[in-house]
């Protein structure tokens, strides 16, 4: 179903009306929501293409899916850090720059901040660079990664669908 932005905005407004008024259903009052209140949500819709995929921009937080190569590199740095930490402890010092954190694996999803967009006029297929924020004191730099391709609705947030891709976080 391809909807233009005005149709998407109307659907969003109708959904907001239903959600708000469902919470007020105990007293049977209808609370109207002016469409002007949805300007910020509409702005978010403008940041997506007409097909609903995000147009990347610097500073956006997206989800990145790790590959086995990513996981091996991260876990390798952390394992090296653990052995180096033991050496530092033996010598009476600890360096906070040593990477430590929980183990990662292929298919794990972490937040990534887009740091570079490879186009002056980006589209949904433009590659990006980014910093992947891990569960530890380190980050992982990824280069030239693409957005997850359009998938059927039932697979839209399937983390195993495609590795080494980014996607817009699911709205909850």
Overall description:
It is a single chain. The protein has helices at residues 5-23, 39-46, 68-90; strands at residues 61-65, 109-117, 128-133, 139-147, 165-167. The protein has 172 residues and is α+β, with helices and mostly antiparallel strands. It has two domains: 1-46, no CATH class; 56-167, no CATH class. A five-stranded mixed beta barrel has the order 1-2-3-4-5. Strand 3 (128-133) and strand 4 form a beta hairpin. The radius of gyration is 21 Å and the shape is elongated. The two termini are 21 Å apart. Mean pLDDT is 76; it is low at 40-51.
Q: Tags for this entry?
A:
172 residues; alpha+beta; five-stranded mixed beta barrel; 5 strands
Summarize the structure.
The protein has 172 residues and is an alpha+beta fold. It is built from three helices and five strands; from the N terminus they run H-H-E-H-E-E-E-E. It has two domains: 1-46, no CATH class; 56-167, no CATH class.
């Amino acid at each position: 179903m391809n909807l233009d932005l005005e149709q998407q905005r109307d659907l969003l407004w109708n959904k907001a009306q239903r959600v708000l008024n469902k919470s007020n259903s105990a007293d049977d009052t209808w609370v109207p929501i002016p469409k002007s209140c949805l300007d910020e949500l509409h702005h978010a819709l403008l940041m997506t293409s007409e097909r609903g995929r995000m147009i990347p921009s610097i500073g956006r937080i997206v989800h990145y899916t790790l590959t086995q190569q990513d996981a091996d590199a991260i876990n390798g740095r952390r394992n090296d850090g653990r052995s180096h930490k033991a050496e530092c402890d033996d010598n009476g010092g600890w360096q906070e720059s040593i990477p430590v954190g929980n183990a990662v694996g292929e298919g794990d999803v972490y937040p990534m901040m887009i740091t570079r967009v490879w186009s002056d006029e980006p589209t949904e297929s433009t590659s990006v660079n980014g910093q992947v924020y891990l569960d530890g004191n380190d980050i992982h730099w990824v280069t030239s990664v693409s957005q997850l391709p359009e998938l059927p609705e039932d697979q839209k947030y399937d983390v195993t669908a495609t590795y080494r891709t980014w996607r817009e976080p699911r709205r909850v």
